[in-house]
Amino acid sequence: MAKSELVSAMDELQQRLNPLLRQFGFSKQCRTHSRMTSEGLTQVVGFQMGAFDPPGATYIPGLRENLYGRFAVNLGIYIPEVARHHGGGEPKSVREHNCCIRSRLGRSIAEGTERWWTISSSEALANEVRQLLEAEAFPLFRRFERRDQVLAEFGHLADNNHLIAVPRIVCALILLERGERDEAQRLLALQARDHTRNPSHPAYVINLAQRLGLDIS
Question: Which residues contact 211 (CB under 8 A, 6 or more apart)?
């Protein structure tokens, strides 16, 4: 399909899925559907079309694939205080890349693969994505409607997992927003001490703590 045909097919597919998402309280803006929880967290479903690579691009199966003409469905949970201090600031319109908890529809953790579909406006494809939204996306969003759920799931984690890159930092920022400075400071101190995979990361955490008025040096 030509570019305009791909865009039209993607538009039509979203329109087929929009009634289900609207039923669950999601509003649509371009390729992003989002809803806000009672605690002010934003849950996001984002449709990502594969980029067109310039002529001569080299593709390596399993490492760099040709994704033009394909799409993925990204999922995210946005927490304002985390974005404010650790995510580039609070955007006017939340997109999946602004979220600190992120996943992708159809992702296989065991196999380490991510699902990209060939763009089509067919009802069969819409039904497949609908089923995955109901089986994966909505249960994920129910897990993270409140900050207490985020703290309960990630507060004990020392390092990243498939949903969140730096659980201690996210939890520390939630706790600090609540006024729990001592626990926030403890988590950031642990993060600066234990996270050794990236040599520059401890300095980043110390600087973040200083900007927050915490001393972990």
Answer: 85
What is the SS3 assignment for 27?
Answer: strand
Tokens of 207: 């600087």
- Residue linked to tokens 């900050």: 147
* H helix intervals, the chain: 3-23, 80-86, 123-132, 138-143, 147-154, 167-177, 181-194, 201-211
- Label residues 177-189 b or e (16+ Cβ within 10 Å = b): beeeeeebbbbbb
* Side-chain-side CA neighbours of residue 133 (13 Å): 25
For 89-136, how does the pLDDT look when each residue is reduced to its tens digit (9 = 90+)? 899 999 999 999 999 999 865 556 789 999 999 999 999 999 999 999
d(CA 7, CA 119): 9
Structure tokens at 43: 């849950």
Q: How far apart are CA 199 and CA 46, in angstroms?
A: 33
Whole-prediction pTM: 0.90
Cross-strand pairs, 35: 43
